Amino acid sequence: SQMKEAGIIVEAIEEQDVDDTILTSGRVTFADINVGHVFTPVTGRVMKVIAQLGQHMKKGDPLAVIQSPDVGQFSSDLGKADADLIAAQRDYRREKELWEKHATSQKDFETAEDTYRKAKAEKDRALQKASLLRSGNVNMVDQSYTLPSPIDGEVLMRNLSMGVEVQGQYSGGASQELFTIGRLGEVWVLGDLFELDMARVTVGAPASVRVIAYPGKVFEGKVDWVSRILDPTMRTAKVRCTFDNPDSLLKPEMYATVAISVEVRKELALPKGSVLRSLDETVVFVERGKTDAGKIRLVRVPVVVDEGESSNWLPVSKGLDKGTRVVTHGAVLLLGLL
After folding, report:
1. For the chain, how far is it from start to end, CA to CA, in angstroms?
2. Which of these, 22, 28, 274, 313, could form a disulfide with 269 (CB 3.0-4.6 Å)?
3. What are phi and psi of 225, to 5 degrees?
4. What's the CA gap between 233 and 228, in Å, rounded?
5. CB count in 10 Å sphere of residue 178
6. What letter does residue 48 receive in the DSSP assignment?
7. Kind and range of the H or E element at 3?
8. Which runs of consecutive H residues, i.e. helices, occur in 54-150?
9. pTM here?
10. How far apart are CA 252 and CA 193, in angstroms?
């Protein structure tokens, strides 16, 4: 009754699935399909900032409005290319009819044909250039362009303000990222594997990470990719692990300690909470029958275990046999008594 009230549980130890563990450093990143990096295709001045940090956006929602002469230029180029194509096509058809009737020279016919082909190529180029603006909302009246959100997600970064001049992505200059839109429900952790460990890690292997922001919390995930090439300087290969992150506790660019489980095997093992340190010994409490008064007898027994940092089960090397009844919960309460 005293043991029950104190929450002390005694269980027979058995063989368990015990895994070896590879520890490495890692870095939290976005899952690339869950993040959108927003640049502007036009050069101009920011007239309105719509999206706020932390705001949830739907795909296509407006982020900011940029007033740009590029909008009018793209439209003008397209109109001019269309007019030139119509004129060149008309000349080509006329020269072709005359050529078929032997009423014009071959040189004039070929010149008209070349002009038509150049005009057609220029029209295609102008269409391609104008298509860069189709993802956003173009207003030809005030020559403004509205940046749209590329995906559903939260505004994680904003790098512009009212009145700032921004460089277009296709203008030849250095364009900067204006918004980062992302979803943190699932994240990646990228770690480094030494060459000798590459053969031991397989896709689907269980993985866990710890970060200094939450020292008592372990995040569980799995390996979903192992690089086939080595970094020539570090002599390591990248390994990627996927983690569900419903509470957004894991944030991109956090440093993490990654534990990857490999080589699962059956061994006699103790749960981690049953093993205690007493002075210079590692001990457990073992049930040794009952006293004359009918009370349970518990004895402190030294053991040798492999204390893997991330494993829930500690393999027993010496001190216990299969079936031995050991205190698995509440052992720390007995440390000062026995």
Report:
1. 18
2. 313
3. -165, 140
4. 15
5. 23
6. E
7. helix 2-6
8. 69-100, 106-131
9. 0.58
10. 20
Q: Look up residue 101 and give its amino acid.
A: K
How many residues belong to the chain? 338
**β-sheet with 153-158: strand ranges across:** 35-38, 179-182, 153-158, 56-57
In the block, which residue shows the tokens 């059956």? 266
Angle formed at CA 304 by CA 300 and CA 307, multiple of 5 degrees: 110
Which tokens hold the place of 178?
A: 């204006």
Residues 260-279 have a mean pLDDT of: 78
Q: Are strands 62-67 and 15-30 parallel, antiparallel or unpaired?
A: unpaired
Q: For 205-237, what is each residue's pLDDT tens digit? A: 999 999 999 988 999 999 999 998 998 888 899
List the single range of 149-153, 181-185, 279-283 with lowest mean pLDDT: 279-283
Angle subtended at Cα 187 by Cα 184 and Cα 193, rounded to the nearest 5 degrees = 160
Task: Give the CA distances from residue 283 to residues 82, 226, 316, in Å, rounded to whole numbers and listed in that order.
Answer: 87, 39, 11
Please name the residues in contact with 246: beta carbons below 8 A apart, sequence gap of 6 or more: 185
Give the separation between CA 219 and CA 256, rounded to whole angstroms. 10
Rounded Cα distance, 337 and 334, in Å: 5
Q: Which of 14, 59, 55 is nearest to 36 (CA)?
A: 59
Q: Given the structure tokens 């603006």, which residue do they identify?
A: 133
Question: For the chain, what is the mean pLDDT?
Answer: 84
Kindly report, residue by residue over 86-134, the tens digit of the pLDDT: 888 888 888 888 888 888 888 888 888 888 888 888 888 777 766 666 6
Calpha distance 189→170 (Å, rounded): 32
Q: How many Å apart are CA 129 and CA 76, to the nearest integer? A: 11
**Distance separating alpha carbons of residues 232 and 258, to the nearest angstrom:** 22
Q: Which of 43, 46, 41 lies closest to 65 in space, CA to CA?
A: 46
Cα torsion 195, 199, 204, 210: sign: negative
167: tokens are 């460089």
Distance of alpha carbon 59 from alpha carbon 178, whole angstroms: 16
